[in-house]
Specification:
Elements: H1 5-16, E1 22-25, H2 28-38, E2 42-45, H3 51-58
Parallel strand pairs: 1-2
């Protein structure tokens, strides 16, 4: 969903306002696309439910906004 039109629009806006972007994508090809085109450092596999715990470990203080563009 991060690689879809709405997801990419959200990524671009968040980068414009200098927000930290953490994304999920279902395939390695889509994760590579996000790294190469947007320079996103943290991209998790959306098909592996453990990404929730990985994000919790990364952001112990929590998140401010979650956007699900499915």
């Amino acid at each position: 969903a991060a690689t879809g039109a709405a997801g990419q629009m959200c990524i671009q806006y968040c980068q414009y306002i200098d927000a930290r972007v953490i994304a999920t994508a279902g395939t390695e090809e889509k994760r590579r696309f996000l790294r190469e085109h947007y320079g996103i450092e943290h991209i998790f596999n959306s098909r592996d439910a453990s990404f929730v715990n990985q994000i919790r470990e990364l952001l112990r203080e929590g998140v401010d906004i979650i956007i699900n563009s499915l």
